[in-house]
Amino acid sequence: MIVKVVGCVVGVVGSLLVYGILQERIMRSPYDDGGAEESFAHSVFLVLCNRVVAASVAAAALVWTRGAVRPVAPAPAYAIVSASNVVATTCQYEALKYVSFPAQTMAKSAKILPALAWGVAVNGRSYGAKDYLVALGVALGCAAFATTGEESESSRNGARGATSGVAAWGPAYGVALMLAYLAVDGFTSALQDELFRGRYRTENVYNQMLWVNAFSAAGACAWMTLWDASMGAAIGFVRRHPAAFADCVALSLASTCGQLCILYTIREFGAVLFATIMTTRQVLSILLSNAIYARAMTSRRWLGAALVFASLQSKALDFSGGGGGGGGGARSKSAATKSSSASTPRRSARTAARRRATHT
């Protein structure tokens, strides 16, 4: 048992630490490879690499487990989820040109806020007082972290690869991208719940992972060939800078490995250990990024981070009890008359795994 727990911790934390550091390396640091320095400016290409690798691994997993490969939902359902998924992830990568990785990590912790809003709007759910208190704690912590202000590095690096008009806005544009990411990502989660837990219910996470990522890869490819015609420029960049292509592939492998470790951790040990590991990973990601890029953490930022992580961990502990007590947890209108066993922690944990398997 101890060996399994340690393996899960190392797998999840290690994979996602590499994923986070590579995000910042690719989007914020120039490549030279013995020639002139160039900055990577093709966020959609990074999404494309990520989705191709994830879809390939999911297909291999289905073959290995002899799972059903046939799609469980019609093409339009996958297309809608995939479109919002590509937009959200592109905003996430693009924002790193303008805000530091620690600031982005804190902002991503605020996913609970749009999740509550979209849960009510799309899924018809209602939430208890504790859910809103947790959301308030996360919001206050993120505000304390953000309002301390980015170092001058943000102003130096924030406008790289951008047009002069965008460069003038600097970090403010990065914040706008993160807000767009949170809103669209929350919508994607709610839509996946509506489609794959209700109308086209499936317990095979690899099937959903395969088709959502395959449609996302097709959407990213269409974006780069039909919308902004950037495919040629992206391919030209990675040909001139092989190290950039190696980083893109490594990031995609780390992300996919992290998702598989997440699925295994939740299946074997439940949501509380998973949430604890993810909180630890966020703290380590911030510390490692600050160490690599020589950033200082003020006491106000530490306080904000502690408030966010404490709020999220309290939610996880409440969740371990089945979302009872104090009105914690959400219930859909259609499920209000069903037995409470329909929303057990294990089922909800599987749902969280499905989201993460297609959202990175």
UniProtKB/TrEMBL annotation:
It comes from Micromonas pusilla (strain CCMP1545) (Picoplanktonic green alga). The keyword Cytoplasm does not apply. Coiled coil: none annotated. The chain crosses the membrane at residues 44-64, 166-184, 210-237, 272-293. Its main location: membrane. Residues 331-346 have a biased composition (Low complexity). GO terms for cellular component: endoplasmic reticulum membrane; Golgi membrane. PANTHER family: ADENOSINE 3'-PHOSPHO 5'-PHOSPHOSULFATE TRANSPORTER 1, SOLUTE CARRIER FAMILY 35 MEMBER B. InterPro entries: SCL35B1-4/HUT1 (IPR013657). It is a multi-pass membrane protein. Residues 347-360 have a biased composition (Basic residues). Pfam families: UAA (PF08449). Keywords: Membrane, Transmembrane, Transmembrane helix, Transport. This is Predicted protein. Residues 322-360 are annotated as: Disordered. It is found in: Membrane. One of its GO terms (molecular function) is 3'-phosphoadenosine 5'-phosphosulfate transmembrane transporter activity. Belongs to the nucleotide-sugar transporter family. UDP-galactose:UMP antiporter (TC 2.A.7.11) subfamily.
